[in-house]
UniProtKB/TrEMBL annotation:
Bias (Basic and acidic residues) ranges: 47-58, 67-80
Cellular component GO terms held in the UniProt record: mitochondrial small ribosomal subunit
Subcellular locations according to the entry: Mitochondrion
InterPro entries from the UniProt entry: Ribosomal_mS29
Domain of life: Eukaryota
Name of the protein described by the UniProt record: Small ribosomal subunit protein mS29
Key words, A-Z: Mitochondrion, Ribonucleoprotein, Ribosomal protein, Transit peptide
């Protein structure tokens, strides 16, 4: 009886505890359910904006800019004081750093590897088209409007001086005179500066010079429009009245150019007519000087629609203006300078409409020229005198391989 009573009590107790065990198990499962995914998990938290840090950065930038201005102003004051000390104008081996010639026409071979001082007012007057970028950078960083007189420039000037006075009887022993020259050479060897100096010299001599300092602008930028009737302008259409502009017999070149400025539809035609009229001038020497000349032998930035979904690139020779001025197959004096900073690419040696012997190599700085250039930068306080040694400037020359831009950049790092 006792065993039966214990068995019944145990069974009753287990039946009462069963629901409690199931409920606790359900609670445990509910408590262990997975949490919903965090949308920001794995992403970097956004940094908190600190206004004090921004103010600190702005103050540092302002301080750096102000200190640079103070250093530049202090250097200019020192250079102004140095002008009163002629002993500082000494180049390599004690020879004069600046030439005593007052004009480019009076330069001789003895003036090579010296600096010629320009007047900025006179430069802007003689070259209203603008100065080459390399010339502007040289003036700004050296704080003086002076350029190196190179032997290659003197030879270029003498060549065109002889070409202008070329007599029918040519001396066989004299150097060959070229009326058409294409200046080619490595990047930053001074082609554009030499061309600008040649134009400056020719205009000071009374020549009539057609100067294009940025030939790439003729093939890039703007709009291309091929009018089947007029072929003029970008969508200007037919001119009012007659499609031809009459010019009187006594019209000057200035009046011709003014007509092209006042009548947009006739601008291209006036430019072509100007080329024809310049070829007839015999009273004064005429020179055509084109910088970035290699841009006229490749494809332009313009395109012509062929179908609804395709366009054909336009070559430079298809442009009326370029076609009128590109050719060198004539008796007029013409010089073009290649510009490898325009990313045109390498052209073949023989170019169309260019004489086979017209292309000459324009060199970078030679050893002696680099010596003078480094002494000039020393004179202009681009480098400290205690750091300037023969070994240091030779290192800069060999590192830059005679590149003028790189030499001007490396000189301040002399230590």
């Amino acid at each position: 009886m006792l065993l039966r009573s214990l068995l019944r009590a145990t069974t009753a107790a287990s039946s009462l505890k069963q629901p409690h065990w199931q409920l606790s198990a359900c609670r445990g499962m509910a408590a262990k359910a997975p949490k919903p995914p965090n949308p920001t998990k794995g992403k970097k938290p956004h940094p908190k904006f600190d206004p004090n840090q921004k103010k600190t950065e702005e103050m540092q930038a302002i301080n750096t800019e102000s200190s640079a201005k103070e250093e530049t102003e202090f250097r200019r004051r020192q250079l102004a004081e140095d002008d009163n000390n002629p002993a500082l104008d000494a180049g390599p081996n004690g020879r004069p750093l600046f030439t005593s010639a007052h004009s480019l026409s009076s330069l001789t071979k003895d003036d090579a590897n010296t600096y010629f001082k320009f007047s900025m007012e006179e430069l802007r007057k003689v070259l209203p088209e603008g100065l080459p970028l390399g010339m502007v950078k040289e003036f700004e960083e050296s704080s003086r409007s002076a350029l190196l007189v190179r032997q290659s420039f003197i030879e270029l000037r003498d060549n065109f001086q002889l070409a202008a006075n070329l007599s029918p009887v040519v001396n066989s022993k004299a150097p060959k005179v070229r009326k058409q020259i294409v200046l080619d050479g490595l990047l930053s060897c001074g082609k554009s500066i030499a061309l600008a100096m040649l134009v400056y010299w020719a205009r000071k001599e009374g020549w009539l010079v057609f100067y294009v300092p940025r030939g790439r602008d003729w093939t890039h930028g703007g709009l291309f429009y091929k009018n089947p009737h007029t072929g003029e302008g970008a969508g200007v259409g037919w001119p009012k009245g007659s499609d031809k502009m009459e010019l009187s017999e006594g019209t000057t070149l200035f009046q011709l150019i003014q007509a092209g400025l006042n009548n947009t539809y006739a601008a291209v035609g006036v430019l072509v007519r100007l080329r024809m009229e310049l070829a007839k001038v015999t009273s004064v020497p005429v020179l055509f000087a084109i910088d970035q000349y290699n841009s006229w032998f490749t494809f332009t930035d313009f395109e012509e629609p062929v179908t609804v979904r395709s366009c054909r690139p336009i070559h430079a020779r298809e442009l009326t203006t370029v076609n009128a001025f590109r050719s060198m197959m004539h008796e007029a004096m013409m010089v073009g300078a290649f510009s490898h900073s325009t990313a045109v690419g390498k052209l073949r040696q023989e170019l169309p409409d260019v004489p086979a012997d017209a292309r000459i190599h324009f060199p970078r700085y030679s050893f002696d020229e680099a010596n003078t250039v480094c002494h000039y930068y020393l004179r202009q306080r681009l480098v400290r005198r205690d750091a300037f040694t023969e070994e240091n400037w030779k290192k800069i020359f060999y590192l830059s391989n005679g590149n003028g831009t790189e030499m001007r950049y490396l000189v301040p790092f002399m230590r």
